Amino acid sequence: MNPESATKKRRERRLSDPTLEDIGKRAGVSRSTVSRVVNDSPDVREDVRKRVLDVIQDAGYQPHAAARALASQRSWTIGLVLPQSVSFFFTDPYYPHLTKGIAQACNQYNYTLALFLVGTKEDEEKIFPRISRKGFLDGVIVQSGHHGEQWIIGRFVDAKMPLVIAGRPFRSDNVSYIDTDNVNSAYIAVSHLIQLGRRRIGLITGPTSSTVGIDRKDGYLKALLERRREVDESLIVEGDFTEAGGYYSMQRLLPSKPDAVFAASDVMAIGAMRAAREAGLRIPDEIAFVGFDDLPIATLSDVQLTTVRQPVVQFGAKAVEVLLDLIENGIDPPRHILMETELVIRDSCGALRGGRD
After folding, report:
1. Cα separation, 48 vs 273, whole angstroms
2. What pTM was estimated for this model as a whole?
């Protein structure tokens, strides 16, 4: 290659992939000034900052991730810790939707997302030292709500790492969390069934070792007691958020002759509806169903599921926003956020047919 061609190649490369020096020359400032602008340092005059940013935009400059991290003492990476078995993560549609919302928000704010699946205490022992190593992550989101996960949450709190819990933890006084208003949402769902004239309303709860299971059961009980309905313990069965769990829970409920069932997840509701059909019951004429989540599976059945819509993707995105607030502004005081839900009425509750006499 002759010298003229080589010079041309270098010029084309410089224009397509500008460096800090290139940006500085175009803006009439030093390389260090451009670096301070890129890393949002406060000690740059506003007119200079604007001039540099205009050049950056025109040139299509993207800061090198490693250089950005070195200059800011941040990794620009956040972790998502899911304390569940790998199989459960990939079979429950809730988690992919949650992860989608988190990943989209990370992309929006130019963060990298690192995923950690923790199935056992041994996993926690191996993974925690790596996650908590200084400079590895800027903050962590932990999907939680179970008694057994308090241990790893406590370790993050002790390490003073920016931390957001997705799901209300059992101990929440010293940690930030985001959750759905589960008590009120379940209350609205069961109240809807009562208003439709259903007398024997069954409940398939989530695990009672989880705050979500406890809170949705509390909402069910609140709706019954507020209307002076007797609480029949034979109509309450603990599930596990799986379709098989919903199916077997419904089989346990059938001898108590419920005329409606509130299931604490759509997945369990689908399993329960299958058991009801196998028992010869017509939905919604003889038995009504309401689920929780409004995942895509709610509309796949020939009898579409009435359900509580929680914004799972937006929930994940909001968790990232809260975590970035902690990273930027400090972890104290803890932030506690409850997201609202919506009751989506479809075929399975009977409301579209006018309820029951």
Report:
1. 65
2. 0.76
CATH 3.40.50.2000 fits 77-180+312-339, yes or no: no
Query: Do 182-311+343-353 and 3-72 have the same topology in CATH?
Result: no
Residue 13: the pLDDT is 40
Per-residue pLDDT tens over the stretch 139-192: 999 988 665 567 778 888 888 899 999 999 888 778 999 999 999 999 999 999
What is each CA distance from 353 to 136, 196, 348, 349, in whole angstroms? 57, 10, 10, 9
Predicted confidence band at 17 (pLDDT cuts at 50, 70, 90)? low
pLDDT grade, residue 86 (50/70/90)? low
Alpha-carbon distance of 219 to 187, in angstroms, equals 4
Q: How many helices (H) and strands (E) does the chain have?
A: 14, 12
At the top level of CATH, which class does the domain 182-311+343-353 belong to? alpha beta
In 83-239, beta strands by DSSP E: 112-117, 139-143, 163-166, 176-180, 201-205, 236-238
List the Cα angle 334/339/345 in 5-degree steps: 165
